[in-house]
Automatic annotation (TrEMBL):
Transmembrane segments: none
Pfam families for this protein: 4HBT_3, Acyl_CoA_thio
Domain Acyl-CoA thioesterase-like N-terminal HotDog: 33-109
Family recorded in the similarity comment: Belongs to the C/M/P thioester hydrolase family.
Acyl-CoA thioesterase 2 C-terminal domain location: 168-270
The protein's name in its UniProt record: Acyl-CoA thioesterase II
Hydrolase found in the keyword field: yes
Record carries keyword Hydrolase: yes
InterPro entries associated with the record: Acyl-CoA_hotdog, Acyl_CoA_thio, HotDog_dom_sf, TesB_ACOT8-like_N, TesB_C
Keywords of the record: Hydrolase
Length: 286
């Protein structure tokens, strides 16, 4: 079956050689710079292509080194650090016009190990069907909903959710992919990597309504605990423990509809005072 969604197109990278891949550019009406999740998702896809099907990504750590042009394809170079019986390790470097704009390390693990199990419970929140569809995505990107029309993203009103007393600045969001994707764990891990960058940094401004800052992802990490399907509803519980010196840290716990904790995300981003006439995120026409 041929999947024709924009997300499937983005994750359908071209293999140039054993360890070199080309990822297609964004099809965007909004972004000047490549969306961070676009780079992360394609980098995970590239690394996955060099690892056997017996192992899945369980963690990644990445850095956004320079702005990437949303209208240009990106080349990914994978380095095979280690292939063990239980784990495999990769680094991925992303290039545009010969300049490295993004790098990632990722680790893959087989699913044959057993050990103790526990997980934080999902917080009490309204069901996604009871949360209104917003006019736009709370991301700091004006008109972002146009580019992310394949996703259903709903922010829960903090006044109707059980508050997290340990959270300084945070919120909860339901999201799911509205299209079709292959029933494949690796594909959905790439799709979750793509989506994990959307909205998380903006959660740092929940405690500062109306405060105008320049936002940009600096680094991004994900730990994958259990297989996930992004075509089902997922709860993204976001919190920012600290913001200072023009940077903000945001963390996110992702639960499936059944209440299982499936992934944890951490990101530090630029959050410095916005200069006059600028937008929080560079967009077309600015």
């Amino acid at each position: 079956m041929q999947y024709t969604s924009e997300l499937a197109r983005v994750l359908r990278i071209e293999q140039l050689s054993d360890d070199r891949f080309r990822g297609p550019s964004m099809n965007t009406d909004v972004f000047n710079r490549t969306f961070g999740g676009h780079l992360v998702g394609q980098a995970v896809a590239a690394a996955t292509r060099t690892v056997g099907e017996d192992k899945l990504v369980h963690s990644l750590h990445s850095y956004f080194l320079a702005p990437a042009d949303a209208d240009k394809d990106t080349e990914y170079v994978v380095k095979r650090l280690r292939d063990g019986r239980s784990f495999a390790s990769r680094t991925v470097e992303a290039y545009q016009d010969g300049e490295c704009c993004f790098m990632m390390t990722a680790s893959f693990h087989h699913d044959l190990d057993n050990g103790p199990e526990h997980a934080e419970p999902m917080p009490e929140v309204p069901a996604p069907e009871d949360v209104p569809v917003p006019e736009d995505i709370p991301s700091g990107v004006p008109g972002a909903k146009k580019d992310f029309r394949e996703w259903d993203i709903r922010t829960i009103d903090p006044n109707v959710a059980v508050p997290d007393l340990t959270t300084v600045s945070g919120r909860s969001i339901w999201f799911r992919f509205k299209g079709e994707l292959p029933d494949n764990n690796a594909v959905h891990a790439c799709a979750l990597s793509y989506m994990s960058d959307m909205t998380i940094l903006f959660s740092a401004l929940q405690a500062h309504p109306g405060y105008k800052v320049q936002l940009a992802s600096l680094d991004h990490a994900i730990w994958f605990f259990r297989p996930v399907r992004v075509t089902d509803w997922l709860l993204y519980r976001q919190a920012s423990p600290s913001a200072a010196s023009g940077r903000a840290l945001a963390q996110g716990r992702i639960f499936n509809r059944g209440g299982e904790l499936v992934a944890l995300v951490a990101q530090e981003g630029l959050a410095r005072d916005l200069r006059a006439g600028a937008t929080q995120v560079p967009v077309r026409g600015n």
